[in-house]
Amino acid sequence: MLELLGHERQRKLLAARPAQSLLFVGPQGVGRKAVAEWFARGLNCQRGFPPCGECESCRLQDHPDFRLIEPMRFTKAGQLARRPQIRLEQIAPRAGSAEMSLIEWLQTSPRYRAKVAVIDSAHLLGEQAGNALLKLLEEPPSYAYIVLIAPSREALLPTLASRSMTLNFGPLSRRELSTLSNDEVALGYSEGAVGRLRLALSDPAGLREAEAAAREWLSALASPAQLLRLTARLRQLAQGKFDPWTFVQAGLTAWPAEYRSAAYAAFMQLQDDLSAYVSPELAYTRLALAMRRIYAEMRAGSPVSR
Ligand SMILES: [Zn+2]
Fold this sequence. Notes:
Layout: H1 8-15, E1 21-25, H2 32-44, H3 56-59, E2 66-69, E3 72-74, E4 80-85, H4 88-91, H5 102-105, E5 115-119, H6 127-138, E6 144-150, H7 158-162, E7 165-168, H8 174-177, H9 184-190, H10 194-202, H11 204-220, H12 227-238, H13 244-251, H14 257-275, H15 280-300
Parallel strand pairs: 1-6, 1-7, 2-5, 5-6
Antiparallel strand pairs: 3-4
Helix pairs in contact: 9-10, 11-12, 11-13, 12-15, 14-15
The structure holds zinc ion.
């Protein structure tokens, strides 16, 4: 049976079937998709909400009344797409397409009670696909529920957002996550996301390596001879499974507010530099030098210079 953590308020609301078009927003990994699946299970459970896990419908692995639509990562020629996208043929019928579109899938009645389609990364809907979906949201069949999943309401086409009821999903609390693990390092890395916690628990050695590197980097702010070498090392580690900069940022919470916010500003500068295609090496060097300056000012008790 589906294991699900937290989001009690959202689940209570969903059990009352508030709308046929729903928009789940929140950071990746907090469980938006898992709650959407729980909703679909509950709609079709013979005993209603919460899904019992034992009836005929609940016991099905691949449920015929559930459909997940995700952005295509490859082009028709089989090459990696420049930008993943949900294409028109995934939503509406199109000549020459082998796959059954969402609209076609919704034309037949459910095997149980309700058909539920989940559109993951709905902010990656192409324009034509978005328009086709809009028509569906305006007049869905009585048995159909459509759940859009996106990082934020603003990320979505406004016409789609305005026709859907929005539910916000925030990070889970430490108390909720600690039912899965008591590993402090993994809990720290999770940032309130079950998905991130599971990833952290899948490779304890790798996680500890990233954490140790981050700690070493932070202590190099006090004696900066090695700082640039360590910066290169963190950049290299960040290419792997775990991003050590997450631990660096978590380490800043112990800093007094004034210096901490200057340090976060240095990280935002880094994001700006990287999205402006400044060479990554240069962008990270700039971060390291700014952090060193802020740290020195904190040690000396002098105000932060801008
Ligand atoms: Zn059931």
